[in-house]
């Protein structure tokens, strides 16, 4: 009888702890933000309404590989409805000592904005910004204010709505969230391709008749790969026409040309996969004149191009996933001879956890530099100093977040222990 009573007592206690975090977060949010907001439409838990929870979790997730049953999911999803909800979420997560992850468009290649590779003991709350997508375009000032939950497709549309002659150089995938796109040092296209190709490759003999003339907003639809009958208004949906799949990607930066023999070997490796993709984005021009230390994104001067390797599959079977992942790792290993070195550079918006990751919030400067130097080169050191200054408690952390130093550098240049 005593054994049975002890079992029931322990089981009940564990349930209380699990529900308490959710309840306390809800109560805390109501204290720190506008009470008139119907919070029943902003909170989703796997226990109270599993269907709605899963629907919201998957709503902007772009990589099915990150949504397998074994992947750790959020304890709670809070969909901010007004800007003050974001501040309240940070305050409440700090008070409850629970990790907070923030999702803008859900395009993180490893899904770390809405899932976790951490130990199961590290629970987290997902702050979803999907409802915060207001866009204000000021043509006279050549600027726009955009909330972080909007997609770049929506931004494109609102600019075109205001002007026939303005555009914005962002990504090709129109469902990208603007928040992660910009903070990662994203890139886009506003090239005068005909002039460039005629100048660089006159032997191709390109002429005006080889080009299709269209408006800028129509070119957005065209370059995204959508059918010609798709209207620009489709961009306001913030969705992609293409199905969501499993995928794995990696990246490199090229600083010297790959020899012909290297390219031949690359193609042999490339064609071993049944759904390979590789994109080479040319650099140079104005980018080549900008020092790598001028802004956090360092891959500028001296870079010939950026390479993205990608493989995708629809089968959720682990054996299939392993086959594709092993292939891309093999191709990446082969290309190591030809790409940048010391460090082997990588693009942070093509996040790759193969490069290494934090296992908890206590990763140190040297451990995180394994991938930090690849993403940011020497700017990593400066970014860690900034992180230590603005987030001394390391509240905002994830598998590849910047660490904090055990000290701060004072105005006199001396170290101050935390």
Automatic annotation (TrEMBL):
FAD-binding PCMH-type domain sequence ranges: 70-263
GO MF annotation terms: FAD binding; oxidoreductase activity
Keyword terms of this UniProt record: Alkaloid metabolism, Disulfide bond, FAD, Flavoprotein, Glycoprotein, Signal
Gene Ontology biological process terms in this record: alkaloid metabolic process
Transmembrane segments: none
Cofactors, names only: FAD
Keyword check for Glycoprotein: yes
Similarity comment: Belongs to the oxygen-dependent FAD-linked oxidoreductase family.
Purpose: Involved in the biosynthesis of pyridine alkaloid natural products, leading mainly to the production of anabasine, anatabine, nicotine and nornicotine, effective deterrents against herbivores with antiparasitic and pesticide properties (neurotoxins); nornicotine serves as the precursor in the synthesis of the carcinogen compound N'-nitrosonornicotine (NNN). Catalyzes a late oxidation step subsequent to the pyridine ring condensation reaction in the biosynthesis of alkaloids.
Protein name: FAD-binding PCMH-type domain-containing protein
Organism: Solanum verrucosum
UniProt lineage: Eukaryota, Viridiplantae, Streptophyta, Embryophyta, Tracheophyta
């Amino acid at each position: 009888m005593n054994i049975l009573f002890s079992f029931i007592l322990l089981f009940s206690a564990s349930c209380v702890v699990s529900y308490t975090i959710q309840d306390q977060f809800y109560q805390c949010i109501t204290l720190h933000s506008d009470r008139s907001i119907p919070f029943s439409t902003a909170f989703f838990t796997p226990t109270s309404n599993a269907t709605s929870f899963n629907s919201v979790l998957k709503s902007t997730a772009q990589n099915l590989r990150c949504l397998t049953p074994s992947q750790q999911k959020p304890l709670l999803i809070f969909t901010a409805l007004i800007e003050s909800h974001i501040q309240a979420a940070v305050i409440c997560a700090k008070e409850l000592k629970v990790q907070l992850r923030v999702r803008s468009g859900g395009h993180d290649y490893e899904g770390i904005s809405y899932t976790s590779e951490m130990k199961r003991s590290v629970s987290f709350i997902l702050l979803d910004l999907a409802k915060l997508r207001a866009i204000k375009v000021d043509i006279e000032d050549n600027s726009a204010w955009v909330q972080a939950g909007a997609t770049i497709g929506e931004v494109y549309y609102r600019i075109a709505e205001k002007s026939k002659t303005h555009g914005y150089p962002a990504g090709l995938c129109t469902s990208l969230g603007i928040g992660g796109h910009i903070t990662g040092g994203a890139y886009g296209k506003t090239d005068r391709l005909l002039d460039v190709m005629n100048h660089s490759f006159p032997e191709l003999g390109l002429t005006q008749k080889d080009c299709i003339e269209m408006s800028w907003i129509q070119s957005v639809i065209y370059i995204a790969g959508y059918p010609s009958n798709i209207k620009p208004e489709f961009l306001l949906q913030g969705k992609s026409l293409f199905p969501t799949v499993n995928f794995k990607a990696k990246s490199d930066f090229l600083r010297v040309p790959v020899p012909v023999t290297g390219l031949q070997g690359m193609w042999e490796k490339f064609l071993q996969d049944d759904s390979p993709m590789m994109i080479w984005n040319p650099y140079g021009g104005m980018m080549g004149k900008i020092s790598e230390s001028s802004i956090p994104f360092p891959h500028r001067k001296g870079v010939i191009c950026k390479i993205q390797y990608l493989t995708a599959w629809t089968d959720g079977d682990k054996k299939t996933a392993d086959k594709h992942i092993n292939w891309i790792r093999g191709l990446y290993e082969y290309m190591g001879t030809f790409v940048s070195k010391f460090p082997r550079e990588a693009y942070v918006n093509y996040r790759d956890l193969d490069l290494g990751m934090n296992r908890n919030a206590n990763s140190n400067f040297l451990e995180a530099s394994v991938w930090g130097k690849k993403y940011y080169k020497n700017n990593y050191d400066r970014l860690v100093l900034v992180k230590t200054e603005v987030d001394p408690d390391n509240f905002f952390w994830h598998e590849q977040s910047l660490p904090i130093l055990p000290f701060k550098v004072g105005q006199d240049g001396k170290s101050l222990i935390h």
